[in-house]
């Protein structure tokens, strides 16, 4: 799509050169024209991010064979509706809560739509942050579009139930930090809301928030904000958002922190360094594109640009040092997942270093070629992604699709035998997928235990209800019923008795080349015909 590019303006332009939100309220007679100027300012980027989100939602929703396991987690966490989860704070579950009223494929569509809606909001945040730092729309477009060469916006974002929220929130959090620290203290409460939401998405956000606190404490200019009532209100808002999660952690043996420790083991490795390169290579691509356009990267001369840029650079990059060091000493975990959100706002900081760059003839350098190139990259990525799924390259178009078939088959066998909906499933982790793909979303036959710390569980599960409604249990794949052992899952429910067992054949992927596996299915009969609810 054509990208409207305004004439390049100097980085030293005054604050009135670009209308920004949260500024002084216009007088009543100018209110309509002010809104018209705002709409003219944001119409093009809003159109782009909306189009981006719509296209990726349609492509992924139509072609992706199954949702990732993180969607199964999000569904179960949303149903529990607690102030925390075994891996994350509470926003990851809350984000999926609207989908609880949906049924069948609509829940999968919600997964994709919510992801790319969040990414679209995050892209607009990168645009806004770059605009605030440079006062140049051309550089704001460049920062936003450069992220199209990174999978963090599309392919890499789909497997996670937390990173897509960080992609949405971190750019706006940093933008509001600049607004609050350098423009107007009334932005502090808004910063606290966005920072609180980001912190309740993933604990890595506390690395940025801790750095913000440290830098404001060390800087006399920033420390003056402590005397503002707006800052005090911001602190109160943030604490109200995070304290319930601290209470939850204390009552669940700090499970989320222990989960991280369970994923790693002490051993020197290069995965931290490799993950850093994998996450930040788009920044290198952007720098090369800027240089090829004839611009130069240099420290901004304007104090209005240099001060917020220095603050954001420290807030964003200094926490990376201990994180990368930790994953260099300890091996394990999804390191790239931790680092990718740090790379999302980074283009806005880099383009601030080319503000005011000039060619040898004295004219300001245009980066239009780079903008067009990155826009073309966006189209290429979505076309290649669709081709890989349609052509089933490396089984991308059929991955885990056999679990959807298994869910439908087992649900039908349960209904044929007992004439009632399937309410509970348990046993091998394959059963977790049934909570998503069996119609009605049965509950997992697992209660919380500080000793076991299950990844997903049913918060208010009651043995009497399970005995009344019955349950379907799955054994270990490739173990026939003659050798299957369900004692571990039944140990929590001593009154449950297996009614019958049956070996079924299934495959994880709907692929003719894949050998089918035997799977033992055990049925715990309902104690009485349940009421439909």
Automatic annotation (TrEMBL):
Keyword tags: Membrane, Transmembrane, Transmembrane helix
Membrane-spanning residues: 46-63, 109-131, 188-218, 230-250, 279-297, 309-330, 370-389
What name has this protein been given in UniProt?
Glycosyltransferase RgtA/B/C/D-like domain-containing protein
UniProt superkingdom: Bacteria
- Isomerase as UniProt keyword: no
Q: Which residue ranges are recorded for the region named Disordered? A: 1-20
Q: Which residues form the Glycosyltransferase RgtA/B/C/D-like domain?
A: 115-248
Instruction: Return any one Pfam family short name.
Output: PMT_2
């Amino acid at each position: 799509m054509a990208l409207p590019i305004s004439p390049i303006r100097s980085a030293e332009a005054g604050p009135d050169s670009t209308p920004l939100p949260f500024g002084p309220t216009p007088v009543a007679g100018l209110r309509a024209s002010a809104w018209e100027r705002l709409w003219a300012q944001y119409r093009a980027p809003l159109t782009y991010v909306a189009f981006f989100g719509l296209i990726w939602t349609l492509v992924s929703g139509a072609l992706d064979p199954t949702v990732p396991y993180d969607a199964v987690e999000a569904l179960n966490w949303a149903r529990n509706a607690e102030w925390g989860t075994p891996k994350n704070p509470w926003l990851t579950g809350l984000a999926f809560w609207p989908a609880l009223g949906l049924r069948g494929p609509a829940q999968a569509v919600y997964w994709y739509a919510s992801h790319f809606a969040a990414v679209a909001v995050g892209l607009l945040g990168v645009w806004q942050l770059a605009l605030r730092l440079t006062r140049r729309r051309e550089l704001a477009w460049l920062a936003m579009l450069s992220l199209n060469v990174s999978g963090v916006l599309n392919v890499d974002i789909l497997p996670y139930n937390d990173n897509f929220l960080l992609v949405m929130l971190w750019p706006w959090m940093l933008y509001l930090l600049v607004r609050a620290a350098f423009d107007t203290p009334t932005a502090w409460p808004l910063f606290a809301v966005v920072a609180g939401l980001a912190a309740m998405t993933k604990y890595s956000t506390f690395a940025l928030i801790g750095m913000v606190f440290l830098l404001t404490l060390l800087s006399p200019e920033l420390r003056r904000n402590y005397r503002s009532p707006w800052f005090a209100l911001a602190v109160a808002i943030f604490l109200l958002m995070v304290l319930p999660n601290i209470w939850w952690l204390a009552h669940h043996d700090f499970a989320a922190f222990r989960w991280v420790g369970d994923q790693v083991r002490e051993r020197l490795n290069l995965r931290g360094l490799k993950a850093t390169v994998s996450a930040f290579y788009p920044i290198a691509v952007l720098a090369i594109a800027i240089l090829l356009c004839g611009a130069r990267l240099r420290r901004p001369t304007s104090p209005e640009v240099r001060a917020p840029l220095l603050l954001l650079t420290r807030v964003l990059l200094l926490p990376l040092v201990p994180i990368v060091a930790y994953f260099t000493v300890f091996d394990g975990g999804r390191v790239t997942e931790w680092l990718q959100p740090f790379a999302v706002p980074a283009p806005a900081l880099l383009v601030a270093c080319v503000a005011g760059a000039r060619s040898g003839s004295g004219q300001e350098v245009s980066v239009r070629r780079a903008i067009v190139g990155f826009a073309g990259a966006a189209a290429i990525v979505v076309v290649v992604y669709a081709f890989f799924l349609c052509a089933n390259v490396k089984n991308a178009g059929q991955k885990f699709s056999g679990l959807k078939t298994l869910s439908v088959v087992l649900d039908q066998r349960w209904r044929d035998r007992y004439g009632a909906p399937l309410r509970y499933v348990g046993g091998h982790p394959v059963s977790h997928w049934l909570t998503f793909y069996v119609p009605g979303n049965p509950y997992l036959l697992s209660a919380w235990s500080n000793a076991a710390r299950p990844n997903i569980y049913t918060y208010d599960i009651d043995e009497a209800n399970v005995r009344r409604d019955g349950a379907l249990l799955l054994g270990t794949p490739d173990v026939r019923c003659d050798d299957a052992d369900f004692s571990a899952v039944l140990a929590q429910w001593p009154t449950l008795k297996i009614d019958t067992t049956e070996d079924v054949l299934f495959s994880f992927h709907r692929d003719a080349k894949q050998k089918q596996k035997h799977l033992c299915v055990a049925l715990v009969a309902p104690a009485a015909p349940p009421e439909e609810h």
